[in-house]
Design a protein that fits this description.
The protein has about 400 residues and is an all-alpha fold. The protein has one domain. The chain is about 70% helix and about 5% strand. The chain has a two-stranded antiparallel ribbon. Helix 1 crosses helix 14 and helix 4 crosses helix 10. The two termini are about 10 Å apart.
């Protein structure tokens, strides 16, 4: 099993950094892009921020699938492998999700003044929220990830069984996703469909397909522009052009709806979101490898650390945003200062979360319970235990790390 392990791709931490930046833009602008700043002269820009950066969560979904299939596709599905896989997800994903859900739900009850009222009803309501990913607005992402983890061994085994399944993975994922979208629109009417993994199946399957074919993708991702083939250059230009076109049409559709009330069929919003964010996942992958190759080392180090902390930042940043927004006082949405206030929230959420989680990882050995896996550079120092070999008395060092792969 160990022989089949893939090389680590440090570029992916930059991908996570770009994705969490997208998430922070959307969440920081969410109130402003609603009705709060609807008549502001800066509304187009506020709406643009809110819609253009919606690639954040779908890109995380794509990346999580890519990483799983990149690491596991070449390894036999054994009981030991599956046991190790689930132990890590239980420890570093499910436990932080549970604690975050309890924390945010309790805080919501407290703010609404009902924490000590009707405890049985509150508990029942919390359990319903826990099993629907709705204990707080952003936790649906972790909830759908847990759903995919449950299915992962079956999908992995299926894709390993035949290259034909790999070839059709993305079209099948896209077809099943849209089958569910249409079924839900015309019959099921599930309001919180975004909390179901099938709503993102195309992203999971795209990640799987690219992971399996990553050796071929390397030629596109790792070569500088001058060394790319003419075919790769044309495809890259087509990718970026299509991405920008989809993004700006998506932005404009929502602007017309929100600002002027010109709403259209919900399937158009679904389609443009899907095209925009699927293309974004590929664009971010290309940009990630380009930045790692060409950006100044200081910027690479900054983005790498941000990516390493991205899951913890994702969990905690809404709390800081909620506190920050209580200090808006009388800033008018008509003022340019209001735009500054929105970006101030983004910076507070980013910097505050970063400081808090990095401090926690450095100072508290059990911080993983709340924030997930400890980044390697922040892990406690390895313990060096001297031992004496039998025979010649030579001293050797046994290096024992706390965190496995």
């Amino acid at each position: 099993m160990d022989a089949a392990r893939q090389e680590r791709l440090p570029q992916l931490d930059i991908y996570r950094a770009l994705a969490i930046t997208g998430v922070l833009h959307v969440h920081a602008s969410s109130f402003a892009a609603g009705e709060q700043a609807l008549n502001s002269p800066y509304y187009y820009w506020l709406n643009w921020i809110n819609i253009f950066f919606k690639f954040g969560t779908p890109s995380f979904i794509f990346l999580s699938s890519f990483v799983l299939f990149y690491n596991y596709y070449g390894r036999p599905v054994t009981r030991s492998l599956i046991g190790h896989f689930y132990r890590r997800r239980l420890k570093y994903i499910l436990l932080p999700y549970l604690l975050a859900s309890i924390g945010y739900y309790t805080l919501t009850l407290y703010v609404n003044g009902v924490l000590m009222q009707q405890p049985a009803e509150n508990l029942s309501s919390f359990l319903a929220a826990l099993f629907s990913g709705s204990a707080y607005a952003h936790l649906y992402f972790v909830f759908i990830s847990i759903q995919f983890y449950l299915l992962f061994p079956l999908i992995l085994k299926l894709l390993q069984s035949s290259r034909l399944w790999v070839k059709w993975a993305f079209p099948l994922g896209l077809g099943l996703q849209w089958g569910f979208i249409l079924w839900n629109k015309y019959q099921l009417h599930i309001v919180e469909k975004g909390s179901l993994a099938i709503s993102y199946l195309a992203y999971y399957m795209l990640g799987a397909y690219i992971a399996v074919h990553f050796e071929e993708m390397k030629r596109w991702l790792m070569q500088p522009w001058g060394k790319l083939t003419s075919g790769h250059k044309r495809l890259t230009v087509l990718l970026f052009t299509s991405w920008l076109a989809a993004a700006f049409i998506h932005v404009q559709l929502w602007y017309e709806a929100r600002h002027f009330g010109n709403w259209t069929d919900s399937l158009w919003y679904e389609l443009l979101w899907n095209v925009h964010t699927l293309l974004s996942a590929l664009v971010l992958l290309y940009v990630t490898f380009m930045l790692y190759r060409k950006a100044p080392r200081g910027l690479v180090a900054f983005l790498t650390r941000l990516g390493e902390l991205s899951f913890a930042i994702y969990l905690i940043h809404p709390l800081l945003l909620a506190v920050y927004r209580r200090f808006r006082y009388s800033i008018s949405p008509d003022s340019l200062l209001y735009v500054g206030f929105i970006y101030g929230g983004l910076m507070v959420a980013l910097a505050g979360s970063w400081i808090m989680v990095q401090f926690a990882f450095r100072r508290f050995p059990q911080a993983w319970m709340a924030f997930g896996s400890v980044p390697r550079p922040l892990a406690p120092p390895v313990k060096v235990k001297p031992s004496v070999t039998a025979g010649n008395g030579q001293v050797q060092s046994e290096i024992k790390g706390k965190h496995g792969a």
